[in-house]
Amino acid sequence: MKHVFVINPAAGNGAALRDILPAIHKALTGFQDDYEIHRTLSEQETILYCKQKCAFEGEVRFYACGGDGTINNVLSGIVGHDNAQLAVIPCGTGNDFVRNFTEKDNFLDIEKQINGSVMPADVLKWQGGYALNMFNIGVDCDVVAEAAAMKSDRLKGTAAYLAAAFKVLRRGKTYRMAYTKDGEEEVEDELMLAAIANGHFCGGGFQSCPAASLDDGFMDVCIVRPVKGLKLPILLGKYRAGTHLMDKDADKYIQYIHCKKFKLRAMEPVRISVDGEVLDFTDTEFEILPGAIRLVVPQGSRPI
What we know:
Elements: E1 2-7, H1 15-27, E2 35-39, H2 43-56, E3 60-66, H3 68-78, E4 84-90, H4 110-114, E5 117-126, E6 129-131, E7 134-138, H5 139-150, H6 157-170, E8 175-181, E9 187-191, E10 193-197, E11 219-224, H7 231-241, H8 250-253, E12 254-259, E13 261-274, E14 277-297
Parallel strand pairs: 1-2, 1-3, 3-4
Antiparallel strand pairs: 5-6, 5-14, 7-10, 7-13, 8-9, 8-13, 10-11, 11-12, 13-14
Helix pairs in contact: 2-3, 5-6
């Protein structure tokens, strides 16, 4: 089997090159299998590179070394190729995808990655491509964009997301949207956010979809209606902890949907975060692709 380490040199302010690259070289000293290291140049270059590798190699395991955006790029290049496996080495800021597993530090252990097991995992599809973890629309996406603008040497990671959340929520912004699940009748509503998920986490550890599973053949959708006053910080804390569905007022503010297809239409300008990458959004249908990718789980870890 060919082992291909796809490294985003910009991820984590250079953490991939500074920390992970030496660890890769050390772990592969005397390694018998064929391997190579590829430094990414851009999103499209990464996708094309992975597609070409899948087309001209036999069995190949890709190690996405970067943040959630790098994972998405590698994913987009290998979906549909039965000879490809995806391993994740987190070097970004939020690193939300690996939070879906126990012992997430194992994802930084190259030997445990090489000796990891393979599980079938679902993939989210939309008109712009694919996602492995989550789509966030509305206030959730605004927080991702604000956190990116706030990041510095002093404020990074989870702290940046928390600071961004408080700043964004003070604006009280809501969005008019219409949605439907599995072809049912469309519902129009005023929303704070919509999270369409395969995994649990977004925004540096907010557990927006606590009932999600990577391999159950369904997507989880969490819709939050406008929340005002003292209830807002209370619900924000529960949204981070993943206990918001148990709040006594959950039925008033939250709708949680388990489905295979979900269509969302925005009635005013809004943005979407695709595995952490912020794009403009109007409307689209989201679909779950059961078992569409072979995902590597490091030795000693398992899905939560």
